[in-house]
Amino acid sequence: MDKDRQETFDEMVGPVGSTIERLLLLATRRAHRTANKLRVSARKRFPFILPASGPLSDLDGGIEMSAHIFSRDPLVLYMPVGGPRPLHALAAIGRRLAARRATFLLMPMWTMERPAIVAQMGRDLAWYAERFPRHETIFLCNTEEERRLIAAVGGNAIFSNHNLMISEDVFRPLPDVPVEFDAVYNGRISPMKRHYLAFEIERLVHITYSIGELTPAGARAFTRRLQAQSPLHRIANPLVDGLAGRLTSAEVNRVYNQAAVGLCLSAVEGAMYSSMEYLMAGLPIVSTPSLGGRDVYFDPDYCIIAEPEPAAIRHAVETLRDRAIPRAEIRRRTLAKVDAQRQELMVFLSELLRRKGSSAPPIETWPFSGTEGLMRWGTVREIAASVRQPTSD
């Protein structure tokens, strides 16, 4: 384990066949990390230093971001923020929409309960407000503590955990699917996901994929390590050339229904979409203590916070498995909590639109279609083009 209680690279990939293969793996890992650091360094600084016009103004146009157009008139965009300088994508898109009145609903993808990050963000918020007075930013925070910290540095923030956005129409119990596994873990290939904590569970299914935190060679070694644990452990994703392919949301839900319990094993992240997906599908949850807000909708009747040790995780899984809590009950109680907070957000958004000059009636039905619709990624250049249009204001 490293200082942040994550798996080290060696622990993730496990034993390697030969000394030469190991040296190559470590060398490519080192080069990959160096390239990523340079890329992230440029990405987080460029939007704050580039001119508003001229030949250099579009150097940050290739930055990847996501923005959902909640309203075109008035213009309201919902967008995730995160990383070591969370507002870099906002700064990039903001320069391109500077002449427009716009409101940005900012959803933290990663916990903001990090004082150094929030302090820098406060400075960036002041910088942004000075340069883009026609824009308003509102943070939809995953925890009350996150809201408090952001408000303390001058941010406009409300509590609205992003797991409200998970679609109960996609993630749901499937009565015709038999339970084959004690637990399912939906976790990407990353040190922070701590897959090793699940290795003592007798029957386990993994949903996993790579977002490039490891090189392809490292991701293949990680996949081999998961496969080698037990003949009763399985990777649900299709494997192509040793790499895990993606599953559709419907396929993910079917895998959930093949398991008795859902796992949440990271120590720190955001609110963790899969935690709500499990609950919508009617799965009880075994989690480790965590920072980020995934426990907002937990209930002690069907969620156990276990110590981050393989034996403790296995025991908690067996406890919940043997309780055999009806899936419809878990889903019903979860949706009751979700609906109450969705109603609060709809009231807030209705008032926001009214304040911005909209004559539309108050929002009465949930206006978001789920995370697949909200998290459509593109470059800053592409997204700016999709929302830019003439206005009369």
Question: How would you describe this structure to a colleague?
Answer:
The structure is a single chain. By secondary structure, the protein is an alpha/beta fold. Helices cover 39% and strands 16% of the residues. The protein contains 12 helices and 15 strands. The protein has helices at 9-13, 19-49, 88-96, 115-131, 144-152, 216-227, 249-257, 273-280, 310-323, 327-355, 371-374, 380-387, and strands spanning 64-66, 68-72, 75-81, 102-108, 135-141, 157-159, 181-186, 204-207, 233-235, 239-240, 243-244, 259-264, 285-287, 303-305, 377-379. The strands form 4 sheets. Strands 9-8-7-12-13-14 form a 6-stranded parallel sheet, sandwiched between helices. Strands 2-3-4-5-6 form a 5-stranded mixed sheet. The protein has a two-stranded antiparallel sheet with strand order 1-15. Helix 8 (273-280) links the parallel strand 12 and strand 13. Helix 2 (19-49) crosses helix 3 and helix 3 (88-96) packs across helix 12. The chain is globular, with a radius of gyration of 22 Å.
Key terms:
393 residues, alpha/beta, 5-stranded mixed beta sheet, 12 helices, 16% strand
